[in-house]
């Protein structure tokens, strides 16, 4: 088994480009790679999926225990000859920015996965060696096996590679030169989503060509060969469905963990995708509604113009259909939403509050939610790990939960929760947290029976 965690000293080093190039190259060589992403990111796995045509999976040690992560990783490696995991932020940056918990290093250490450190050589040369040596020495086991230079000219590579090998003792395995036509563009929540880049396959193909020309593949293969973790059988998708869940899935609502979808299917839910942008009704014979996050602010005008869908969702929620709405889905249930064009548009009107743009990330990062009362998904006192990542806020965020930062202890009230509803900015994670998943599925099944839709 070949395995590699692609990490970097900081964000902005080009981890996604290198990961996609490596996945494409491994696929070309017939190694059937699988892909993973450290942390709670939604967007990077979309790029992995575009390369491979199969789902990428999150590896998150805030949401999951180390033992669960090992099982989860092993299960999704089954049947593959190579695994590539894209790191998050800087190599050691974890929960709260002051710990290594849930960092790329923590994942590599938990899985004993060798690390390819990506360096973007901007404005430094010999100092890079000092930084790399510091990264190697910061923990007793860094797991760093090799270096890779990104966005680097051939001339600079010829100068830096021998120096870095001499000063760090690590092999420099290759480089990617700068190619504007292969770059991935960014905006306020990170990269544009894979579906928005019309020539993505051509860009990935060019990156793979460049990598094939400039990677010492034989050396890479020998350094990143691992014994694996005793790979388990893949998750069975043959669980009989007891209910159907309508799940928003389009350009406006595209942030949903694959692990959560798998957990819902395992609990007996058939997931039926629909588009709040283009469909006019919810799918037939469904017992529950799932509105995940995404970019509703970019499509606020079009969402508002689709009045039949707004009416259908408003009616479903008010009639008691079990509903989970996270972040963008929460904003969609509000009264109004300020679009990226600065205009406020009417939304479903189920919840109080208007969605407004902020100048910076709001309540960003991991937190624990404590339920203040019994509701659809949780019992009073339940504590749930969550993540928030949004530039928009609401004038009314609710008070059904107490949210608290794990390091600083900073806390605030948030969320709406009733016997039939969970709605708020915090994103939930289903894998390893089967209680809320089972409750949602059970409630949808009961609702479907009452409506005579089974």
Q: How many extended strands?
A: 23
Please give the order of strands in the largest beta sheet: 3-2-4-1-5-6-7
CATH architectural name of the largest domain: 3-Layer(aba) Sandwich
Q: Name the CATH homologous superfamily of the largest domain.
A: P-loop containing nucleotide triphosphate hydrolases
Q: Which value, in Å, is the CA radius of gyration?
A: 23 Å
Number of helices: 13
Gross morphology: elongated
**Spans where pLDDT lies below 50 across 5 or more residues:** 187-191
Folded structure, characterized:
With 454 residues, the protein is α/β, with parallel strands linked by helices. The protein folds into two domains: 2-223, 3-Layer(aba) Sandwich (Rossmann fold), CATH 3.40.50; 243-450, Class I glutamine amidotransferase (GATase) domain (Rossmann fold), CATH 3.40.50. The chain is built from 13 helices and 23 strands. The chain has a seven-stranded parallel beta sheet, sandwiched between helices. A six-stranded mixed beta sheet has the order 11-10-12-13-23-22. Helix 9 (258-266) links the parallel strand 10 and strand 11. Helix 1 (15-28) packs parallel to helix 2 (43-52), helix 1 (15-28) packs across helix 7 and helix 5 crosses helix 6. The longest helix is centred in the C-terminal third of the chain and has 17 residues, at 434-450. The radius of gyration is 23 Å and the shape is elongated. The two termini are 45 Å apart. Residues 187-191 have low confidence and may be disordered.
């Amino acid at each position: 088994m070949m395995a590699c965690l692609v990490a970097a000293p900081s964000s902005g080093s080009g981890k996604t480009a290198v990961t996609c190039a490596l996945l494409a190259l491994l696929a070309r060589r017939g190694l059937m790679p699988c892909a993973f992403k450290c942390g709670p990111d939604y967007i990077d796995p979309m790029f992995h999926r575009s390369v491979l045509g199969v789902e990428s999976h999150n590896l998150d040690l805030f949401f999951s225990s180390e033992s669960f992560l090992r099982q989860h990783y092993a299960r999704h490696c089954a049947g593959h000859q190579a695994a590539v995991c894209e790191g998050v932020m800087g190599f050691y940056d974890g929960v709260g920015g002051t710990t290594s918990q849930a960092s790329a290093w923590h994942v590599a250490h938990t899985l004993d996965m060798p690390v390819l450190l990506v360096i973007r050589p901007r404005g430094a040369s010999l100092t890079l060696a000092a930084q790399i040596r510091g990264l190697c020495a910061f923990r007793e086991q860094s797991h760093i096996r090799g270096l890779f230079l990104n966005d680097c000219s051939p001339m600079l590579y010829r100068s830096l590679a021998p120096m870095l090998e001499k000063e760090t003792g690590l092999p420099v395995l290759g480089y990617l030169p700068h190619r504007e036509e292969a770059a991935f563009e960014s905006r306020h929540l990170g990269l544009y989503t894979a579906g928005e880049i019309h020539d993505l396959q051509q860009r990935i193909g060019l990156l793979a060509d460049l990598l094939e020309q400039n990677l010492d593949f034989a050396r890479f293969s020998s350094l990143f060969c691992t014994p694996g973790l005793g790979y388990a059988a893949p998750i069975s998708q043959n669980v009989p469905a007891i209910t159907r869940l309508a799940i928003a899935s389009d350009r406006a609502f595209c942030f949903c963990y694959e692990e959560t979808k798998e957990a819902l299917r395992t609990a007996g839910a058939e997931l039926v995708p629909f588009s709040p942008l283009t469909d006019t009704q919810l799918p037939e014979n469904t017992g529950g509604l799932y509105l995940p996050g995404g970019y509703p602010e970019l499509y606020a005008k079009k969402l508002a113009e689709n009045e039949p869908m707004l009416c259908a969702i408003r009616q479903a929620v008010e009639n008691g259909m079990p509903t989970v709405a996270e972040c963008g889905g929460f904003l969609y249930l509000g009264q109004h939403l300020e679009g990226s064009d600065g205009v406020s548009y009417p939304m479903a009107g189920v919840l109080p509050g208007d969605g407004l743009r902020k100048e910076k990330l709001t309540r960003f990062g991991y937190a624990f939610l404590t339920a203040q009362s019994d509701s659809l998904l949780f019992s009073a006192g339940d504590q749930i790990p969550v993540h928030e990542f949004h530039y928009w806020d609401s004038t009314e965020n609710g008070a059904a939960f107490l949210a608290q930062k794990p390091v600083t202890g900073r806390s605030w009230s948030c969320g709406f929760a009733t016997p039939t509803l969970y709605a708020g900015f915090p994103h939930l994670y289903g894998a390893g947290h089967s209680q809320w998943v089972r409750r949602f599925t059970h409630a949808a099944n009961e609702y479907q029976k009452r409506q005579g839709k089974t």
